[in-house]
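Most newcomers find our protein records easier to grasp once they have seen one. Nothing more is needed to start thinking about how sequence determines fold. Here is such a record, shown just as it appears in the course material:
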Amino acid sequence: MPLIVRDQLVDSICALLPQVLRREMPALSPDTALMDDLAMSSTTGLELMLELEESLGIEISVEDLDRDDFATVSSLAGYVAANIIGAE
């Protein structure tokens, strides 16, 4: 996957997390653990996916999405990059 796409997704995820979790965030990085460090629930994870779709104007296949994909900001960005519907 092109690095630029992954970096853009990491930036987008980091920008949306305070909004989705409805609280201020510490400094976020690609290695921030979503479930462990931020106590993100599966419900907020799905809300984050919907917000990503809306903010980026994309559609993401969530068929194969599982808890491991929410391990870190980077792992979620990787899942999203690989599962954009209609992407070549």
The chain has one domain: 3-82. Helices lie at 3-21, 34-38, 42-56, 73-82.
